[in-house]
Structure formats: structure tokens, C-alpha cells
TrEMBL record:
It is an enzyme of class 2 (transferase). The lineage of its organism: Bacteria, Pseudomonadati, Pseudomonadota, Alphaproteobacteria, Rhodobacterales. GO terms for molecular function: nucleic acid binding; site-specific DNA-methyltransferase (adenine-specific) activity. It holds the Pfam family Eco57I. It catalyses: a 2'-deoxyadenosine in DNA + S-adenosyl-L-methionine = an N(6)-methyl-2'-deoxyadenosine in DNA + S-adenosyl-L-homocysteine + H(+). Its EC number is 2.1.1.72. InterPro entries: BREX_1_PglX, DNA_methylase_N6_adenine_CS, MethylTrfase_TaqI-like_dom, N4_N6_ade-DNA_methylase, SAM-dependent_MTases_sf. This is site-specific DNA-methyltransferase (adenine-specific). It comes from Palleronia pelagia. Transmembrane segments: none annotated. SUPFAM superfamilies: S-adenosyl-L-methionine-dependent methyltransferases.
Length: 1164
């Protein structure tokens, strides 16, 4: 089956049908339309439907109704279930056989006589064949109403009026339908499910786009947001290991196992199981039925069971539909398709004639919203009788007002709705239309309640996936109230609900997201689940950071079968299937699949681990470590960090603010409160980095954080911030990133930091030290054990505290940790993005050579030596802990080079996808770019060649402040805080010329040309081009979209100049305007005059004149651009003398200058 072709067709068909139905609707509703004369009731019904819902919803409904009917009719044509092909031509013909037969005079029984009169010309029509065919289609659909009322409702309403016009051309929807629904493709009814999923896929995209804008998923959009068509092999696994297992437990000599390729036999013989005597006893439910994929395969397996038991083949389909299968669904479309799919299963077994005579119908309960007013409750009493009108019934009747929203999560209060339903259905209210209406609604509720009663032997489902962020408020509140342990996602609530739908010892078979297996917030859910259930088998498809979706399999899911019974020692079978262990169709290369994670594990094994994670691959040695070894919590305490309530208000990248307002090296909250500092270092997780680093943020903790502590929601008055670090603020310890895409990484944090919820901290207690703890936590052992507690890489406090810690391994362990932390900290500080940066390593005397090339070579050798030695020490640290924990059979000490977390290590910095030569080329280019960036810092006075660290880094500082600290600088900073960045030698002090001077000062005149050539070879372009094209983008990236040098740039980039935000003053724009922009415009006008003169010069060649004329036009456009920009943007800004406050941060200050500054994508 070509699912790509199906997807393309279904999406195009939806758009085509919506367009055609929309056009038809406009015609029908026009004043004086033929429809208003000929079918006034249908038009009135259409108008009422639009008023009740809305126009677009009605259009969508009619479009999908015809889509469902067309696909169903084509499937039946291809399968031979139609006596005359309805939407398909006979062999060798082009028009539908139904129309061809009518044109030959062979009308279906009961067809309108108008058809014949249209075809023989007695009834005038502009397109008689098309009009006759539409009437034939309506008649055929109405004929199918008897056998399949769920899909083919009687068409006597506006649905017929809005039937698409073009059904016979070679480009019609039916022609395209036949191309993808080939007879081969229609061999399996699952094609209907695929088409439906693809049909609603664009709607699903729209819903998820709305989620990004914080638009909750409303009840009517839940189907589009949550329906997924389950891959067939997963369906087989689930059904075979629930229904098939149940049958085999009761009939151990059955031959059914030979037909079940995905069946996993129990590890040991079983005696305690749910007893059944005959096939009719088995009740199976899919509470999220979708288009019926689970149920159709259950039909196949049940048929084999009945057949094996010797039942008459002509009776089996009706028995299955009558006794065995129930589907519950909230989406009318999907429910109709599920019923159709089961009907087609029956038709395939019976043949057309017997199928048409079969009275049994698929039991698909499509939930509907049903409500009763208080006044109507008196009528309900009359309908059901006082003896049956109990409190339970009253509550049940009120439970389905939001049935489309809550779906199968509704738990009916009425314990035996079947008996009440039988009595109420039997009552006859004659001509009392009011009571008949109430009776019909009571019956509807009771039928839904009956479907949702706990009576099933097997519940099988691919439940909806929807996190709390997407839930509408009503749904969210229901989950909080009734599913407190599983409220975080619909799929988890459905796991709970499926358990409840089953009778004791019955099976739940589900495919869900994997998160419930590991994430800490599901700990109570796991405890509750294992108190009531035992997993029989599981096929886990983990998310590995790649692999995505293959034929509908979302890696990051798990399929499992659980028995409703507490069996802590039951040996469940667990398998892991990764994306690379499947073929191109997403089917496992073999089954069962044997790999290093295949295991037989019990509930007791999971319960022996903190948090009860479902880590089936956990070894016996690891389990023993958790039960027999003291935990980290005995040597350390941890604290969750601060939540500010508004990071935009209270957090800054450190470079954004005046450094003089930052309290560095504070040792306690009391000391911080006694100062006037506003900003303090702040730990906030960050990228994968071990031992030290990721010191990037400041938090506003002025006056002991009073502003932050009092920050409240303006609507509710509730304080939005929490977890203020307390006495742990500014204490030294260790931190880690709460979320990680790689190995666990812990960093030493010296005194002086507050810390964030995304950067929780640990503090050694007793005689333990930070070095002892970071040595263990950065080891292969800790990473291995943490992946048992948090396989999804979401590392919570409890995970770290629960790790087993073998202590007293000797002083070398802490010494190694200290050395590694020192190296990583020195590497972190070697870049200007650190507030402890002093000078560029390239300029250090330790690495200085005669030329820039020699200096880089010496520095690169030093970096490599440090990387190699760090790798050696990390591996030695791993070896010590692997031996101490007895994990030599599970772990090796080697550390890949890309995990040596030094920025100077190109394998870590860039990853190892490319070649080593590529990485070396990038490292040299980036090092030269960093040299240029440092040079710009010296041009603005942020840094100096004559003193370490920051010089001008406070708001409004001037050159005078610089000279007060460095009276005789080797390289003089710019005086007016404006540095032109232009494509040409227009100013003697532009950025390119200043850099050349800087290069001469730092590396001398003798090798200037050689050094400049080395830089430009490294960058792959000359320095002027780098400054004009790449520098600012690099700068914005380097400072994570919070740049300190701001690029003033004209609309087309003719004029550019940098200003340093810490030196910005109210007259800076005026300086730029008067001393640079206007002067540049004057120079351009002089250049234009020179070019015009050259174009008229009789001594110039024709080529020179032609080029001069082109350049005149170019310069004229540039002058126009700049004059307009000056008039509309720069001059008004200069007059405003805008003030900025560095405390407000780049995000607030940068936009004040509007289009004068180069746009930064993602700044807002």
C-alpha cells in the first residue's frame, strides 16, 4: 500500500471537497435559487444547521460525509460487494458502471423515474449524465442505509443539495480516488483508516499550530488532534497477546498460536487466569476505536477461534458482531468508518448476498452530548418509573453533557445500566412526542453507559495523546478531579480507565507514550498501576533523539499487555525495538527481537528501585546496588532552584547589565542584602558540560530579592515566584541541567551563586566534599544508574539523591575532580563570554610566537594536550568507580573525545559528524573570529591590551574613564563610540582599518602582511568582507541574541556602524548622524560626480564609460536610500535623544531604536 499516495490524495481531496461544497452552498442559499423552490425544507434545515454551529463547520461536515461515502463505495466496488459498480467503471469502460447501466435502460429497483427522463432528453438539463449520476448515487446510498445505517444515512436533506458537481470528468475526485484505491490496495480494509487519518491531517496541523499560540484543544478538535492509525504489526501484537493469550490459557491445546506471529508465550505455565467456556463469552472493547483497526484484527482472530471450535462459517460473523466486539468513539466520522470496516470483514466472509441478509450490526457506540434540564427530570421519572429513578441514575443522566469532550473517561455511576435500558426501551408512550423525546435521550445515555461498564475480558486501544498544556479547561479539571495520578496526559488517564473497564484478571492491551514508565511525576501512577496490574509483555520503542516516525510508529512509545491482578512476582517479557531495528515499513526485522535489553522482569524488580521506573533492562547487580548501598542523600542535600515568575523581568545574560552593579563572590544571603548590588550570578542549567562552566546569567536579587518576592499576577494577585533558595543561596556546591540530550553532567559551583529550577544544586554534608560527589556523579557509573531512574534524561532531585554512593575511595578521587574542574573553568574563562575572561589566549605570552600562525600552532598544541590529559583522568575516574561498583561486565571506562567538555576541543564543540580536518578548519576560523571580536572589544574600550578583564563595562562610561585606568594605552579605543562598518575605504577609522592597526600593535609590523593573510585564509574571506557580512551575525550568536555591540544599519545595508551599548549616551545617534552618516552621503555624492565626469570623459574607453554609468545609477540609489533613511529614521531618533537603562536588558532596550538597528530574529 502506497501510503504517500494515499496521503497526497486525501489531503487534496479534502481541500477540493471543501471548495466544491462551499461553492454549492453559495448557490443553494442565493435568493431565488432553484433549491429554494424545489427543496425548501432541505434549505431551511441547512440554514438552521449553519445558525446552530457555523457555516464552516457545516461545510466540513458535508465534505467529510461525501469523502467517507465515496471511499466506502469504491472499497465495495473493488471487493465485489456491489451488484453494479457504483463509482467504478466496468472493465474496459470509462464511466461508472452504475451510469452506463442506466444509460442502457437498466435502472436500479426503485430508482427515481427522473433519471430515465434526464438520460433520454425528456427532462431538459445542461449536463443530463452528471445530473442523472448524482441521483443514482443518492439512490444507491439510500439502498445501503439498511445494511449499513451508520455510514449511509437516508439522504433527503441538504447533504444531497451540497453534493459535489464534478464526479465524471477525468480530473474528478472519483477519478483520483480510483487511482489510489486500486483493487490491490483495497484487499485490506485498513486502507479506509489510513485515508481518514490523512484526510484530517491538515486539520491536525492547524490544531497544533493553535497550541503554539496557547489555544486549547476544544472538544470538536480532539479527534483531529489525537487520532493516529496504529501500524498493523502493533495491532497484531496487542490483540494476539490479549485475546489470543486469553483463548490459549483456556484452551492450551488450541492451534491458534501457529497463526499469531507476534504472540509471546508465557515464561511459565499458568493456572490463575480468567476462565471462559465458549467464544461467545469473550467481550472485547476498544474505548478509543478510531476507524476500527484494533477491532477488525480482533474480528479476524475471533473468526479463527470460532472456526477452530467448529461453528458454521455462515453464522460466525453475526456471532462476533453480536457478542464479542464493542467500540467506543467520540468522532461520528471515525465511528462510522469503524462500523463500516467491521461490516466489510463480515461481508468478506459471507459474500454479498448473505451479508445483505445479515441482521447483526457492528456495536460501535459513538458518544453524544446529552443533557437534561431540571424541569425535564420530572419527565424522566415518568419515562423510567419511580422504582428505577435512583440517585445513581440521576447522576448518570448528567454525566454525558460533555461526552464529546470526556469520551471513554466517563465512569457511569449506574452499576447495571443494561437492566434499566431493557426496561426503558420496552415502554411505549404512544403519541406523547415529549415523552418519546425524553425516552430517546434516556436510552441514548443508558446505551453509552452500558458500553462503558466494567464487563470486558479484553480492552485494547491506542488511546489519545494530549498533554495538560493542550487540554481545554473543562477536560483538565475533570482529570484533576477524577484521575489525579494520571492527569498529565490523556493516554495515562486512559491506561487507568482501561483497567477499570475490565473485569478481574482481564487484559488491557495498549500502545502509549513511554513517559509514564520513567518520569517522576508518574511515580504515584506507576505505584497505583502495579498495585492492580501485572505486565504480561511489553514492546518498548524508545525515543533516542532521532528516528522520528516510521509508518506511524512514533519512537518514544510502548506497547504492552497487562492483566488486572496484583502479581508482583509475575515474569513479564520485555523487548526493546529501536528505529534502526525496523525495516523501511517500520516493521521489526524479527520478532521476538533479541538484543541487550530483552529481559524477563517482575513488578517486584521495578519496585526495588526508587520511584518504580519500568527499567526492564536493569541488571541484578544494579538492583542490588540500589537496595544495599547508601544513597547520595546520606552524603548530600539538594534543593530545587528559584522560579522567578518572569525571567524577562528578573534574569539577564550577564553581559547585558552594568558590571559594577553585579555582586561577584558573595558568600551568603546576609552579605548580599548588606550591599547595593542589584545583579548576582545565577546557575540555570545549560548545555551539556561537565565539571565547571555554564555561568551565563545574573538574577535581580537587590535588597534580598524584594522585587522578585513581591511579583504578583496582575489578574489574581497571586505571587508568581517561589523557591527563594533560602539559606542555600550563595553557598558552594554542585549543579546539573534538569533536562539533557546526552549524558548526565555535573558542575562545581563556587560560592556566590543563586540557582534556578532548571539548575538545581546539591550541597555536601558531613565529611563529604563537592569534589567527592562530582567525581562520582560525572562517572560512567552514575550516568548508567541515572538512566535507570530517568531514561528520558529529565534529571530530578530525587533521581540524584537516590543514587547509591560508594564512598571512601581515597584522596586521589577528589584531587582528580578538582583538577578537572580547574581545567574546565580555565577553558570557560578563555572566552569573552565569561565574566572572568582576562585576555585572549592567543595573545598570552605562554603561547606567543613570531607570527600569528606560530602562536596558533602553539596554542592548539596546548589545547590538545589539555584535552588528552583530561580524557585520561576522566577514564581513570571511571575505572575507579566501575571497579568499586562491580560493574565491569556492564561498563567500560572509555570516554569518547566528544564528551571531553572543553570549548577548545573541536570534537565537543562541533560534534564528530564531519571529518577531523573539517573540525580543525572550523576551530582555526572560529579562533580567528574570536581574535577579531576581541579586537572590536578593544576598539570600544571594553577590553585593553594593557590590563586584564573588563575595562569599560558600566552604563554611560566614556573614553575619559578608560584613560583614568590606562593612561598610556598601546591601542587607543574609539573616542565617540561609533565605528563605521562599510564596504569600501570611506573612513580612515572604520572597523577594518582599526583592526589592521590592532594587528600591527599586537603582532608587529614585520609580519603584518603574513599575519593578515593567515587570518583571511582562516576565515575564507578578507577582513573587510568578514566585518560587513559575518561579524554581526557571529556576535549575536556568540552572545545568544543579547548583543553588546549594536549594528545601526540602513534598509539595504549601504551604511552600517557599530555602537557599544554600555557607552551609549543620549547624543550617540546625533554623533552618528552628523559625523558619519551625513559625511558618508557627502562622500557618495562626490563619488557620483566623479563617475559622471568619467562617463563623459572623451579619453575614457567605452567599457570604462559603460561601467561608470552603471556605478552612477548604483550610487544614486544608495544616496536616495540614505537620504530617505536619514529623514524618516535617524534624524527623528537623534532628536528624541533616547535613553536606555541597562538593567532593563537588551530585549527591552534594542527595540527602542526601531528599524535603525539591524533586526535580530527571535529577540522578542
Amino acid at each position: 500500500m502506497d501510503t504517500n499516495a494515499l496521503k497526497k490524495f486525501a489531503q487534496a481531496a479534502r481541500n477540493l471537497l471543501i471548495d466544491q461544497v462551499t461553492s454549492k452552498l453559495d448557490v443553494v442559499l442565493a435568493e431565488g435559487s432553484a433549491a429554494r423552490r424545489e427543496a425548501p425544507k432541505a434549505v431551511k434545515d441547512l440554514e438552521n444547521a449553519i445558525n446552530k454551529a457555523d457555516k464552516q463547520q457545516v461545510i466540513e461536515q458535508v465534505a467529510y460525509t461525501w469523502f467517507n461515502r465515496f471511499t466506502a463505495l469504491r472499497f465495495m466496488d473493488a471487493g465485489g460487494y456491489t451488484q453494479v459498480r457504483t463509482v467504478s467503471p466496468a472493465d474496459g469502460a470509462t464511466r461508472p458502471e452504475l451510469l452506463s447501466e442506466a444509460m442502457a435502460g437498466n435502472l436500479p429497483d426503485g430508482a427515481p423515474t427522473t433519471i430515465q427522463s434526464l438520460l433520454d432528453g425528456r427532462t431538459p438539463s445542461h449536463d443530463p449524465q452528471a445530473e442523472a449520476y448524482r441521483l443514482l448515487l443518492v439512490h444507491t446510498c439510500n439502498q445501503w442505509h439498511g445494511p449499513m445505517p451508520f455510514l449511509f444515512e437516508q439522504i433527503d436533506d441538504y447533504t444531497e443539495l451540497l453534493m459535489p458537481e464534478d464526479l465524471l470528468s477525468q480530473t474528478s475526485i472519483l477519478a483520483e480516488l480510483r487511482k489510489v484505491m486500486t483493487e490491490d490496495a483495497c484487499q485490506d480494509v485498513e486502507i479506509i483508516g489510513w485515508l481518514y487519518q490523512f484526510y484530517i491531517s491538515e486539520k491536525k496541523d492547524q490544531v497544533f499550530a493553535g497550541l503554539k499560540k496557547n489555544q486549547k484543544i476544544t472538544a470538536e478538535n480532539i479527534p483531529a488532534a489525537t487520532q493516529l492509525f496504529t501500524p498493523h504489526w502493533i495491532v497484531r501484537y496487542l490483540v494476539e497477546n490479549s485475546l489470543g493469550r486469553l483463548w490459549l490459557l483456556n484452551h492450551p491445546h488450541s492451534g491458534l498460536a501457529a497463526k499469531m506471529d507476534y504472540y509471546i508465550a508465557p515464561e511459565e505455565p499458568e493456572t490463575d487466569f480468567l476462565k471462559i467456556t465458549k467464544p461467545e463469552d469473550i467481550r472485547i472493547c476498544d474505548p478509543a476505536a478510531g476507524s476500527g483497526h484494533m477491532l477488525t484484527y480482533a474480528f479476524d482472530l475471533l473468526y479463527a477461534i470460532y472456526e477452530e471450535e467448529g461453528y458454521d462459517a455462515t453464522e460466525i460473523p453475526a456471532l462476533i458482531l453480536t457478542h464479542n466486539l464493542t467500540g467506543v468513539e467520540i468522532d461520528d466520522r471515525a465511528g462510522a468508518l469503524a462500523a463500516f470496516a467491521l461490516a466489510m470483514k463480515a461481508a468478506a466472509k459471507l459474500g454479498r448476498r448473505r451479508f445483505l441478509r445479515m441482521e447483526a450490526k457492528p456495536d460501535i457506540c459513538v458518544l453524544q452530548n446529552v443533557a437534561f434540564t431540571d424541569a425535564e427530570m420530572q419527565d424522566v421519572v415518568a419515562v423510567v418509573g419511580k422504582d428505577l429513578f435512583t440517585d445513581e441514575l440521576r447522576e448518570t443522566l448528567g454525566q454525558f453533557e460533555q461526552a464529546k469532550n470526556f469520551g471513554s473517561l466517563i465512569v457511569p455511576k449506574l452499576r447495571d445500566p443494561a437492566e434499566t435500558l431493557r426496561v426503558v426501551e420496552a415502554r411505549d408512550f404512544g403519541g406523547d412526542l415529549l415523552l418519546k423525546d425524553v425516552q430517546a435521550r434516556v436510552v441514548a445515555v443508558l446505551r453509552m453507559a452500558e458500553a462503558l461498564s466494567p464487563k470486558y475480558h479484553v480492552v485494547v486501544a491506542n488511546p489519545p495523546y494530549m498533554g495538560g498544556k493542550g487540554m481545554n479547561d473543562v477536560l483538565s479539571e475533570k482529570l484533576k478531579a477524577e484521575y489525579s495520578n494520571s492527569k498529565y496526559d490523556l493516554f495515562a488517564a486512559f491506561i487507568e480507565r482501561c483497567q477499570a473497564l475490565n473485569m478481574g484478571k482481564a487484559f488491557s492491551a495498549l500502545v502509549t507514550m513511554e513517559s509514564w514508565m520513567f518520569i517522576s511525576r508518574y511515580e504515584k501512577f506507576r505505584t497505583s498501576f502495579f498495585d492492580r496490574s501485572a505486565i504480561q509483555s511489553m514492546v518498548h520503542m524508545p525515543y533516542l533523539g532521532k528516528g522520528g516516525t516510521s509508518m506511524g510508529i512514533n519512537f518514544g512509545t510502548t506497547a504492552f499487555v497487562a492483566e488486572k491482578a496484583r502479581k508482583e512476582n509475575y515474569p513479564g517479557n520485555y523487548q526493546c525495538i529501536r528505529y534502526y531495528e525496523c525495516d523501511e515499513r517500520g516493521v521489526p526485522n524479527s520478532f521476538p527481537l533479541e538484543n541487550e535489553r530483552t529481559s524477563v522482569t517482575t513488578t517486584a524488580d521495578f519496585e526495588s528501585l526508587p520511584g518504580t521506573p519500568v527499567v526492564y533492562w536493569c541488571s541484578g547487580q544494579v538492583k542490588a546496588l540500589f537496595t544495599e548501598t547508601p544513597a547520595v542523600s546520606e552524603f548530600s542535600e539538594t534543593r530545587e532552584g528559584l522560579t522567578t515568575g518572569s525571567n524577562d523581568l528578573f534574569l539577564r545574560e550577564w553581559q547585558e547589565v552594568s558590571f559594577g552593579k553585579a555582586g561577584i563572590g558573595i558568600t551568603s544571603t546576609e552579605e548580599a542584602s548588606a550591599t547595593d548590588y542589584r545583579w548576582f550570578p545565577y546557575v540555570k542549567g545549560g548545555e551539556y558540560r561537565r565539571w565547571s562552566g555554564n555561568f551565563e546569567h545574573f538574577v535581580n536579587w537587590y535588597d534580598d530579592g524584594q522585587e522578585l518576592r513581591k511579583f504578583a499576577d496582575p489578574k489574581t494577585g497571586r505571587i508568581r515566584s517561589h523557591n527563594y533558595n533560602g539559606d542555600y543561596g550563595f553557598r558552594g556546591g554542585f549543579t546539573w541541567s534538569g533536562m539533557s540530550s546526552g549524558s548526565f553532567s555535573v558542575r562545581h559551583v563556587p560560592e556566590g551563586f543563586m540557582f534556578d529550577a532548571k539548575g538545581p544544586m546539591g550541597f555536601p554534608t558531613g565529611t563529604s566534599t563537592t569534589a567527592d560527589l562530582t567525581a562520582f556523579l560525572n562517572s560512567r557509573v552514575a550516568d548508567h544508574l541515572l538512566k535507570m531512574l530517568a531514561p528520558t534524561m529529565d534529571f530530578k532531585l530525587g533521581h540524584v539523591l537516590n543514587l547509591p554512593l560508594v564512598s571512601d575511595l581515597g584522596p586521589s578521587v577528589s584531587q582528580t575532580a578538582d583538577q578537572l574542574a580547574d581545567w574546565v573553568k580555565s577553558d570557560w574563562d578563555a572566552y569573552e563570554t565569561s565574566w572572568d575572561f582576562t585576555t585572549l589566549p592567543l595573545l598570552s605570552e605562554d603561547h606567543r610566537g613570531e607570527t600569528l600562525a606560530e602562536s596558533y600552532a602553539t596554542l592548539r598544541a596546548h589545547w590538545q594536550s589539555m584535552t588528552d590529559e583530561m580524557q585520561r583522568l576522566e577514564e581513570e575516574n571511571n575505572r575507579i568507580f566501575i571497579d568499586a561498583y562491580g560493574l565491569q561486565d556492564e561498563l567500560t571506562p572509555e570516554v569518547p573525545i566528544e564528551e571531553i567538555t572543553l570549548t577548545c576541543n573541536p570534537a565537543y564543540r562541533y560534534g564528530v559528524k564531519g571529518s577531523e580536518d573539517d573540525r580543525e578548519t572550523r576551530l582555526r576560523a572560529d579562533t580567528m573570529a574570536e581574535f577579531l571580536s576581541y579586537a572590536v572589544g578593544c576598539m570600544f574600550g571594553r577590553y585593553s591590551l594593557d590590563a586584564p578583564g573588563l575595562i569599560l563595562a558600566n552604563q554611560g562610561e566614556r573614553l575619559e574613564d578608560y584613560l583614568a585606568r590606562i593612561p598610556e594605552p598601546r591601542f587607543m579605543p574609539d573616542e565617540d563610540n561609533v565605528i563605521p562598518v562599510l564596504d569600501g575605504d570611506w573612513f580612515a577609522d572604520d572597523i577594518t582599518e582599526r583592526f589592521r592597526l590592532f594587528l600591527r600593535v599586537t603582532f608587529g609590523e614585520a609580519h603584518f602582511r603574513e599575519n593578515l593573510r593567515y587570518i583571511e585564509d582562516s576565515l575564507g574571506k578578507d577582513t573587510r568582507k568578514y566585518f560587513t557580512k559575518d561579524f554581526y551575525a557571529d556576535h549575536v550568536k556568540r552572545y545568544k541574541k543579547r548583543p553588546i555591540y549594536w549594528m545601526v544599519s540602513s534598509p539595504k545595508g549601504t551604511f552600517n556602524a557599530l555602537i557599544y551599548m554600555h557607552r551609549y549616551r543620549g547624543d550617540t545617534v546625533s554623533v552618528l548622524l552628523n559625523d558619519y552618516l551625513r559625511e558618508f552621503i557627502t562622500k557618495l555624492e562626490g563619488e557620483r560626480a566623479r563617475l559622471e565626469k568619467l562617463a563623459d570623459d572623451p579619453t575614457a574607453t567605452q567599457g570604462q564609460k559603460t561601467k561608470a554609468l552603471k556605478d552612477v545609477a548604483k550610487v544614486a540609489k544608495q544616496i536616495d536610500e540614505l537620504n530617505e533613511w536619514e529623514r524618516d529614521v535617524i534624524f527623528p531618533l537623534a532628536q528624541q535623544k533616547i535613553e536606555i537603562d541597562l538593567d532593563d536588558g537588551v530585549k527591552a532596550n534594542y527595540p527602542k531604536f526601531g528599524t535603525a538597528l539591524k533586526k535580530i530574529a527571535g529577540l522578542s
